[in-house]
Design brief:
By secondary structure, this protein is of the alpha/beta class. The protein folds into two domains: about 130 residues, HAD superfamily/HAD-like (Rossmann fold, 3-Layer(aba) Sandwich), CATH 3.40.50.1000; about 70 residues. Helices cover about 40% and strands about 15% of the residues. Helix 1 crosses helix 2, helix 2 crosses helix 3 and helix 3 packs parallel to helix 5. The protein is globular. The relative contact order is 0.19.
Amino acid sequence: MERQSTIGCNIRTICFDYYGTLVQTRQGEPFTLIERWIKESGSINKIGMSFAKERVRLLYHVPVFYTGKQLLEKCYAEVCRKYQIEPKMQPFLEYVKSVFSDTVLFEGTKEVLENLRKRCAIGLVTNADNDILYQSIQKHGLQFDFVITSEAVRCNKPGKAIFQKAIAGAKVSAGELLMVGDSLTEDMLPAREMGMNCVWMNREHRVQGVSENLRQIFDIRELLENESGSDN
């Protein structure tokens, strides 16, 4: 039975998102720390939702660049204000740093990257602060041909500038570049608008927002499958 190759024969460079695509955080999302400091300020579900909404507002609707730490700091401060929680900023920021540096590779990640690097260039395009990101990369012994971070470009995904920088760093046309990421809004949609090929890392088997012509995988090892274009 004929099957479409996951990568495609025209691809010369593959760009990966990092968090949620190649690695997972060991300690959960940063807002979970607030739960330890709640007494009777409201449910953790409401607080988590407020944290996420504030992040979306700052990321999508405020024309100012914030590093990852600054973004989460502002989200935390707003949630504390809204629910009248006494802010403990220094412990929170230390926790944020530990969350994004103390990561765990998804199973098969290193093997897949090493195999793909034999065929094409491999890069990172990620919303991340340089110091924390490189600490995680070094810990896992990962190698990339180039790394594009939001901090370096002063632009968070889904902003176009970070994807333009990726195309320039890859030194190929957008049509020869594949973007692999776990976010529809921050990876897939903007990469498509730039003319890139896309593969959605849908580990949670979500159905909302999926279009028929969007390739998706549920495990990174699927990138090494079906490269012959056929399935016997």
